[in-house]
Amino acid sequence: MMQGRVNRKREAIISIVIANQNRQSKKRINAVIDTGYSGFLTLPNEIITALSLPWAGVERGTLGDGSEVTFDVYGVKVIWDGTYRDIPVCESETDPLVGMRLLYGYDLQIQAIEGGLVTIQTLD
Q1: How is domain 2-122 classified at the CATH fold level?
Q2: Which of 28, 70, 95, 102 counts the most CB atoms within 10 A of its CB?
Q3: What confidence tens digit (pLDDT) does each residue in 41-61 have?
């Protein structure tokens, strides 16, 4: 089970550890849960560069306003529910976002008040 909190901006936040492919560089980040994002995870270029993440290609996406964009995609390891997982991460100059592909197979509960508990646990 993973837990986080709702912040003052009414965002559901969880803390996760990400690493490069050989796990030599690690970083703990706070990420916003975004159920409107269908990907795994977004990271800004600063974090991608600091961890020397390998480029994996490009991906097209549709933003909330309907506009189409192209994202550079990198490979990252994330500790998710206590286990390292290899996932693609899209470069985006926003706060890191956790999307529905990373949440797939889990139960997400949010106490939608400032300081409220965010709980993510497997559906197994």
Answers
A1: Cathepsin D, subunit A; domain 1 (2.40.70)
A2: 102
A3: 999 999 999 999 999 999 998
